[in-house]
Specification:
With 268 residues, the protein is α/β, with parallel strands linked by helices. It has 2 domains: 114 residues, no CATH class; 130 residues, no CATH class. The chain has 9 helices and 11 strands. The chain has a 6-stranded mixed beta sheet with strand order 6-7-8-9-10-11. Strands 1-2-3-4-5 form a 5-stranded mixed beta sheet, sandwiched between helices. A hairpin with an 8-residue loop joins strand 6 and strand 7. Helix 1 runs parallel beside helix 2. The chain is elongated and about 60 Å long.
């Protein structure tokens, strides 16, 4: 009997290559709706993502319902079982926490090893779909009295060169992509905010913070239970600071304060 093909590993769903087409993709991104959209757009056969602690309004597993409607099998691993943003660790240590009905029909179940689930998902039908677009926003807030722009980006991949020196609020998880410090943020912002994705093993959900500290960038995470992952406006409006690096502490960040209060104060 022929063994199923090995899954394609991707630390971020924003960086899928041509090898993802028709493949089972094990991806370190959170399991929100937008990563589900990118998985469908990338032509995957099936995908496994990180549940990011599930979090507020179940945002960390929103991709499962989205992909179910498209006929694409999908599952998420528990954030506590492996490092978010690290596809190799996910395949090696990840444990399934949630799956959509298409994946369940193939034998995927909660508590199963990610490696075993990925083998089962290789039997999924490859469906070529027209993925309904999701709304992923980039906007600039008009904070009264602000001297810095407050830029809301649902994904850190939407950051622009002109955001250097500004306040950047993201919906992204606070983990390093593939453990690469250079990928913590693509510009030298004054401040950056992320979702802690449930923190996870090795405090992986906030590893961007020390990496950004070395660049003099103040950075905080908000608790995954306080704000919807993948939604920068929720980070700003609902987020409660769960961790801050030294640069952020010097600017007045404290665990337990509202992200909006900190961000507005710094912007002014």
């Amino acid at each position: 009997m022929t063994a199923p093909p090995s899954p394609v590993l991707a630390h971020s769903i924003t960086k899928l290559g041509a090898d993802a087409v028709g493949a089972v993709v094990v991806c370190g991104s959170h399991g929100g709706v937008y990563p589900g959209y990118l998985a469908a757009l990338g032509g995957v056969r099936a995908v496994v993502l990180n549940d990011a602690g599930v979090g507020k309004d179940g945002a960390g597993i929103g991709s499962l319902t989205y992909l179910q409607a498209l006929g694409i099998a999908a599952a998420c691993v528990a954030h506590s079982s492996c490092r978010i943003g690290d596809a190799q660790d996910m395949l090696a240590r990840g444990t399934i926490s949630h799956a959509n009905a298409h994946a369940v029909a193939l034998g995927v179940r909660a508590g199963q090893a990610c490696a075993e689930a990925s083998e089962l998902l290789a039997a999924a039908a490859h469906r070529k779909v027209s993925a309904p677009a999701t709304v992923e926003n980039r906007r600039v807030l008009a904070v009264p009295g602000a001297r810095r722009r407050v830029v809301l980006i649902d994904s850190a991949s939407l950051v622009q060169p002109e955001d250097a020196g500004q306040v950047v609020v993201t919906g992204s998880h606070g983990g390093l992509i593939g453990g690469e410090a250079r990928l913590a943020l693509q510009v030298d912002a004054l401040v950056a905010a992320f979702n802690d994705a449930g923190v996870g093993p090795d405090a992986c959900g906030r590893t961007r913070l020390p990496a950004l500290d070395t660049r003099g960038i103040a950075a905080v995470t908000v608790a995954h239970t306080s704000a919807r992952i993948g939604d920068a406006l929720s980070t700003y409006q609902n987020g409660v600071v769960s961790a801050a690096n030294a640069a952020a502490l010097r600017l007045g960040a404290r665990v337990g304060i509202s992200a909006q209060a900190f961000i507005d104060a710094v912007a002014r």
